[in-house]
Specification:
The structure holds two protein chains of two kinds.
Chain A (H helix, E strand, L loop, with lengths): L1 H20 L9 H4 L1 H35 L12 H15 L4 H26 L3 H25 L5 H10 L7 H20 L1 H7 L3 H6 L4 H23 L5 H13 L3 H25 L7 H26 L1
Chain B lengths: L1 E10 L2 E11 L2 E6 L6 H9 L6 E6 L2 E2 L5 H7 E4 L11 H6 L14 H13 L15 H14 L4 E5 L7 H18 L2 E6 L2 H7 L2 E6 L2 E6 L6 H8 L3 E6 L2 E6 L8
Parallel strand pairs in B: 3-8, 3-9, 6-7, 7-8
Antiparallel strand pairs in B: 1-2, 1-4, 4-5, 9-10, 11-12
Helix pairs in contact in B: 4-5, 5-6
Classes of the chains: A mainly alpha, B alpha/beta.
């Protein structure tokens, strides 16, 4: 159990170091010590980008694992309560209305991501606050914000604003600097640390509400605790890099395969798998072609076949359920 | 001792429990009654899953509704009728979840919790299943694992909602014997809902007959007789003696159910 986590952690560290080397400029990493140009490239361009990709990967993956356990469903992902649709809408509104500054886009997507989730939760309360009510409210809210996004894309200036919106919707870590990290990294770290340290509760939360309650868990309170943390992490990651597909759904599946379903090992493994995956995808995005590839294109191309391969391996297992 | 006083429960405007009172001094108590009588509702009210409109539940003098979920879970454990475990956890992990009321939310189970969980599996004779995925077990084994989880919870009162449903002929007897044995050995109380009056008369110390949300008869196993069963199920039965056991058989066939 802990050997898996150690292995994943070491692999992550190795990839982290390798990623510092990846880029348009090829030079040995130690030359950054002597050359100011290389130092700027490594310390001010690559390092914040690598950190952002790792943190965003871990946050999205953790959100996926949290929602899978809270909703007791393998298919749940970070978008299930409308967080990502809300964040996308928020970013598009900011791009449409405001002169393009990253700060307003980040702030708007972050706050609308949170607002969408809160809307889902309060709608669910009207229906009865079961997990089913939450899922259905999430669908409703997602649909509303997707419609809003559609309107904005339709009215946006096709030469100037629309490409910016589309680019943002496909996600990218290019241009992430230390100042971007300063606002969102603490939120991602905080939510990840709290989720990992309360991971035992996720086991009990994955039982039916009645069973969890009879085992002494205040189900509503803990469900809201995890939903809030997952939303915080997701919104922070979306605000810094735009929409990133697949990582939130795929990482918990890989972690379940290598570390099992017990949250005690699943949760830390999921965070590491998410960080590894997104970091690897970002390395591809910034190195395979002279122009940046949007990150979601890479995660789609990498994610879809990987999930299929996992399902092939799990086939016998699923047949038993 | 379990004492239930004047329990009322409504679903919308429909009263499901209408002033249920009962006392269980010791051993295994069983709630018999037709579908829709309110058996599951009663169990859930005692478990604290449902909040009754009125009435109190005392366990050894402690009023259960006054306790936090965590404190209540140390006194009362509950085995639901339907198994809701979605992910293929290891069986031992399932039993470990019974230790939840003793584990701080920001910690993980200790070695001692693990020993208690293993011991619970051992008491039920299924320690060989500890490492198997729960989803791969048979229906009878799953039921035993959930009982083991309830034991690991260390609660004085075991609530079991139809523990024999979906089980085959042999497993029903096995599960009931295990419950009986555990209750005797560990000096616990058990309140069970059952559909089969034969199982009740074989394994239970006290019988409570619940119909339309009220207790129509209660007492020792000897209250299971033709007259009370006729009132409870609205159906004629015959009680025959086979090797010293009273066996209840339906007298009328399905052509005249009422």
């Amino acid at each position: 159990m802990s050997r898996t986590i150690l292995f994943l952690a070491l692999t992550f560290i190795a990839l982290f170091v390798v990623s510092l080397q990846v880029g348009r400029m090829l030079f040995p990493i130690w030359s950054a010590v002597s050359s100011p140009v290389y130092r700027t490239i490594v310390v001010d361009v690559r390092l914040p980008r690598i950190l952002a990709a790792s943190l965003a990967g871990a946050s999205l993956a953790l959100a996926g694992a949290v929602f899978q356990n809270v909703f007791r469903n393998y298919l749940a992902g970070p978008g299930i309560l409308g967080t990502t649709s809300g964040a996308a809408f928020g970013a598009a509104v900011a791009i449409l209305l405001a002169p393009l500054t990253t700060v307003t886009v980040q702030l708007s997507s972050f706050s609308l991501g949170l607002a969408a989730t809160m809307l889902s939760c309060s709608l669910a309360r009207l229906v009865g606050e079961s997990t089913l009510a939450l899922v259905l409210s999430g669908m409703v809210v997602s649909a509303l914000f997707s419609a809003g996004l559609g309107v904005i894309k339709y009215v946006a200036d096709p030469y100037n604003k629309l490409p910016a919106i589309v680019y943002w919707l496909l996600g990218s870590f290019s241009g992430v600097r230390w100042c971007d990290l300063a606002s969102s990294a603490p939120l991602m770290v905080l939510s990840a640390l709290l989720i990992v340290s309360a991971r035992w509760v996720l086991n009990v939360l994955s039982l039916s509400d009645e069973e969890a309650q009879s085992l002494g868990l205040s189900v509503r309170r803990w469900r809201m605790f995890f939903v809030a943390l997952a939303t915080l992490g997701t919104s922070a990651s979306v605000s810094i890099a735009g929409m990133i597909a697949w990582i939130g759904v795929l990482s918990p599946h890989i972690a379940r395969l290598v570390a099992g379903h017990d949250a005690r090992s699943l949760v830390p493994s999921t965070a590491l798998v998410g960080a590894l995956l997104l970091l690897a995808c970002d390395d591809i995005a910034r190195s395979v072609s002279p122009a940046e590839i949007p990150i979601s294109i890479v995660t789609h191309v990498v994610g879809a076949p990987t999930l299929f391969a996992i399902l092939m391996r799990r086939r016998m297992y699923l047949a038993k359920d | 001792m379990l004492r239930i006083e004047d329990l009322w429960m409504l679903y919308g405007r429909k009263a499901v429990l209408k002033g249920v009172s009962l006392e269980l001094e010791d051993g295994v108590g069983c709630v018999l009654g037709p579908n829709g009588a309110g058996k599951t509702t009663l169990i859930k009210c005692v478990a604290g899953i449902l909040t009754p409109l009125r009435g109190r539940v005392y366990l050894d003098g402690v009023e259960l509704s006054a306790l936090s979920p965590r404190e209540r879970a140390k006194l009362v454990s509950y085995v639901p009728q339907e198994i809701s475990i979605k992910f293929p956890y290891r069986t031992l992990d399932i039993v470990l979840m019974g230790r939840n009321p003793y584990i701080s939310p920001f910690a993980t189970p200790s070695r001692r919790d693990e020993e208690i969980a293993l011991e619970a599996l051992r008491v039920l004779g299924i320690e060989h299943l500890a490492q198997s995925p729960f989803t791969s077990l048979s229906g009878g084994e799953k039921r035993l694992v959930l009982i083991a989880r309830a034991l690991a919870q260390g609660a004085r009162l075991l609530l079991l909602d139809e523990p024999t449903s979906f089980l085959d002929f042999r497993n029903r007897i096995q599960v009931m014997s295990v419950i009986r044995e555990v209750v005797e050995k560990t000096r616990r109380l058990a309140l069970i809902t059952l559909h089969d009056p034969n199982l009740a008369s074989m394994f239970c110390d006290r019988v409570f007959m619940l119909k339309n949300g009220t207790i129509i008869a209660s007492g020792g196993r000897d209250i299971i007789n033709r007259e009370t069963l006729k009132r409870l199920y609205e159906m004629d039965v015959e009680i025959v003696n086979v090797g010293g056991y009273p066996i209840i058989v339906p007298r009328t066939t399905l052509d005249s159910p009422s």
